[in-house]
Amino acid sequence: MGLLSGRMVIAATASVLLAAGTAQAAPAKYARHADAAAQLKKAGITWTSSGNCSDWNKKSCTSFTQINKATIEGTIAFKKVSGCKVIVTGGTEKGHSSGTYSHRNGYKTDISTKISCVNNYITRKFAKAGKRSDGAALYKSPAGNVYAREGSHWDITHYNSKA
Question: What is the pLDDT of residue 23?
Fold first, then answer.
């Protein structure tokens, strides 16, 4: 193998190794509850908590501390495309199940099922996607986000900033 060919092989190998070792960037987050809440409020979205609080360390609160910006954008996008009133009932607060795409990691919101427009939109416009292990009916939006019917709310996994 000539010198030029050897250099090309080394360069190609280095490129492959660098590409294989490149980690995906962490999602952009709202560090403070107030910043994410301001975006929701600006979009006409309200939120509620059984504890009337936003402390992310209390189960009875609804917090947006450390929520992904794409999750907030996806919630706003859902309101826009559905034309429905949206009430968020869960965010990043303690007490939700764990996992990569969890509430605590900023990928999920819960929205109230008390708004029939929301229920009708999800069940009529999104594809049925089976049932979760706990029996919750699953629906998948065209954008790939997953909506699970959990009784009093829809548990939404936002994989992106779309509806």
Answer: 59
Q: pTM of the entire structure?
A: 0.85
What is the 8-class DSSP label of residue 6?
H
What's the confidence (pLDDT) of residue 34? 98
State which H helix or E strand residue 71 sits in.
Answer: helix 69-82
- Across the range 24-52, mean pLDDT stands at 95
Per the DSSP assignment, residues forming a β-bridge with 67 are 30
Name the strand (E) or helix (H) holding 78: helix 69-82
Average pLDDT over residues 116-138: 98
Place of tokens 């495309």: 81
| Alpha carbons 32 and 39: distance in angstroms, whole number | 12
The torsion angles phi and psi of 129, rounded to 5 degrees, stand at -130, 30
Distance CA 121, CA 143 (A): 15
Kindly list the domain boundaries of the chain, sorted by start residue: 28-157
How far apart (Å, rounded) are the C-alpha atoms in residues 96 and 117? Answer: 26
* Type of residue numbered 142: P
